[in-house]
Structures are given as C-alpha cells and as structure tokens.
Design a protein that fits this description.
With about 300 residues, the chain is an alpha/beta fold. Helices cover about 40% and strands about 20% of the residues. It has helices spanning about 15-25, 85-90, 105-115, 125-145, 165-175, 185-195, 205-210, 225-230, 250-255, 265-270, 275-295; strands spanning about 5-10, 30-35, 45-50, 60, 75, 85, 100, 120, 155-160, 180-185, 200, 215-220, 240, 260-265. Bound molecules: NADP nicotinamide-adenine-dinucleotide phosphate (NAP).
Length: about 300
C-alpha cells in the first residue's frame, strides 16, 4: 500500500486516469493539478491549483508522458490553465521526492538537476518499452489493414530492427500468417530471427531485400528507408514507420515516387489508451513502493 504517500500529479491525458485510479486504490494521498474539468472523483485525490500544492510533503511528482515543453509548461487535456513547474517549487519538496516523467528535455533536466531532485524517465525503462510494444504492434496491424487491399496472411512483410518494438511486431505479423523477414545488423539478432522461424537479413542488404515486399514496417530510429531503398521497392508497397519522429524514412522521396509511407507515432495512446495507462500505472506503483521501501516504509 502507499498509505500516507503524497503524490502530486500534474497534467496529462487519458492515460493519467488509470494511474490516478491505481494510486487511489493503493491509498496514496493524491494532489491533482490541471484536472478541473475532470468529472470523476477518486478516493484520496483532491483537485488543486498549482500554487496551492503543499510541496514540502510531496514524495513524488508525476508529469505527463511528454514531460514539459522547453518553457517548462505542462500539457493537460483536463484544464485550460497554463501549468508550469519551476526550480523554486521543486526546491520546496523533501530531498527524497522523485519526479516521474515519460520523457525529458533540456528544461526538465535543468530544473531537476538545479533542485537536486531525482528524475525517472518511464519511457526509457525496458519494462515499459516492452509492455508498450504490445499495443504498438496491434496499432501496426490496424494501420496495415486500413491502408492495404490485401490480407496480412500471405503478404511479404519486412520488419526493420529487432529491438523491443521490432520483436513484438515481427511475432505479431508472423502469427497472422505473413511471410516475415527481419532486418538487423548484429549477428546475435540475426541468429534470434532465425530461431523465431523468420528470415533474417543484414540491414546492409536492405535494397535487395526490399524488392519484393508488400509491407515494410520500420522500427529503426535512423535514416534507413532511404531514397535508394524506396527507388527499388514495388510501387504498391506500403511503409509504416514506427520509429520516433522524424522516423527512418525519406518521406519526401516516397511521396515523389508515389509510394505510400506513413509515420505512425504514439500508437499505444491511440489504439489502447486504457491499457497504455495501466502499463504506466503498474510500473509506477512498483517504483513508488520501492521508493517507500528504501526509506524504511512497508
Ligand atoms: P530499441 O529496443 O532500441 O530498438 C531499436 C532497434 O534499432 C535496435 O534493434 C537497433 O539495433 C536498431 N538500430 C538502431 N540504429 C540502427 C542502424 N543505424 N542500423 C540498423 N539498426 C539500427 O527501440 P524500441 O523500443 O524497439 O523502439 C524503436 C522505435 O520505436 C523508437 O524510435 C521508439 O521511440 C519508437 N516507438 C514508437 C511507438 C509508436 O507508437 N510508433 C511506440 C513505441 C516506441 P542494434 O541492437 O544493432 O543497435
């Protein structure tokens, strides 16, 4: 349980509701900042303005997945207020207070470093990335169905990258009956692709390997689907680029050649916001309990 633990939740989207629900069940004391338009009531949670927060009792501060912008402003879909977290506010928190965010930027790095508070970037954690790869793979299936006129079953599908997302996407398309080949550069990854029953290829051979694909799903956050690659692909092929912005595809050239190429960011929040929220809630609850354990709590 997180009894007497004070968590300040600032801004966010639908995913935050699952986190609030979970922390409320665990008996935490929750300050909700930027949630005026939220109708649901949660036991142990109170809506506050940012200047009403009792920072000196905060054990943890939770920011949205996006963290904050470079001016320190925090997004919320539940309020019209501009929310801003400052070094002065963080300095009022106890030394053990931890700031949790999906990702960070220079501004968040700077205010946490200046106030000497620990920052945890949830999206960089392996467990979160692996859990998140499940709705991401389902989102890739959704996009493939929406943007092609053939079945996935029997289609020639090339997955680029065998990281956390690539592995789940490859398994999912393989299970749907596609002819899956996976491009990677490390020999241990090529061996793993073979073990998974799919065809491996080295990314240095990508041009040749793309000549017969119906669908290419990129998970490599580097310019891999270049103009040279696109120029050899069949005209009917679809590229779904899952890598974070700007993706790994030369979209300008794809458009010029008439190949459909789609950048598809944030699929978990689009196809399964509830699950995406539950993933974060579960990991966050574990981290808060660990934080409590380290301070001698139960
Ligand atoms: P990851 O585990 O780090 O995997 C990335 C893979 O790319 C690794 O296998 C890596 O291979 C490979 N790679 C990187 N640079 C390469 C290069 N120059 N040439 C060949 N291979 C290269 O990352 P992930 O968690 O799978 O995430 C992949 C991307 O998807 C990220 O950009 C992430 O932000 C994004 N993402 C998108 C969504 C969405 O909804 N669209 C959801 C989750 C994540 P090595 O092992 O050889 O380095």
């Amino acid at each position: 349980m997180l009894t007497d633990k004070h968590v300040v939740i600032i801004g966010g989207d639908a995913r935050q509701l699952e986190i609030i629900r979970k922390l409320s069940t665990l008996d935490a004391k929750i300050s909700l900042v930027g949630f005026e338009q939220l109708d649901d009531g949660f036991i142990g949670a109170s809506k506050q303005m940012i200047d009403e927060v009792e920072w000196h009792t905060a054990d943890a501060i939770l920011l949205p997945i996006s963290g904050m912008n470079l001016e320190g402003e925090i997004d919320t879909i539940f309020s019209n207020e501009t929310l801003k977290l400052t070094t002065e506010q963080l300095k009022q928190t106890p030394e053990h207070c931890v700031i949790y965010s999906g990702i960070s930027n220079n501004c968040l790095d700077e205010i946490t470093q200046t106030s000497k508070r620990k920052l945890v970037k949830l999206m960089e954690r392996d467990d979160v990335a692996i859990y998140n790869s499940i709705p991401t793979a389902e989102g890739a299936v959704m996009m493939a169905i929406q943007h092609t006129d053939i079945t996935i079953h029997g289609a020639n599908v090339a997955i680029l990258g065998l990281g956390r997302v690539g592995m789940s996407v490859a398994r999912t398309f393989d299970a749907l009956g596609a002819n899956v080949k996976v491009g990677a550069r490390e020999s241990h990854n090529l061996a793993r692709i073979t073990e998974m029953g799919m065809k491996p290829f080295h990314t240095s051979d990508i041009i040749e390997e793309m000549r017969n694909v119906d669908l290419c799903i990129n998970t490599i956050p580097a310019p891999i689907v270049s103009a040279n690659v696109l120029s050899e692909m069949p005209m009917h092929a679809l590229v779904i680029d899952l890598a974070s912005k700007p993706g790994g595809t030369d979209f300008r050239y794809a458009e010029k050649r008439g190949i459909k190429a789609l950048l598809a960011p944030g699929l978990p929040g689009i196809v399964a916001p509830k699950t995406a929220g539950q993933i974060l809630a579960k990991v966050l609850a574990t981290l808060l309990k660990e934080q409590q354990g380290q301070r001698g709590g139960v």
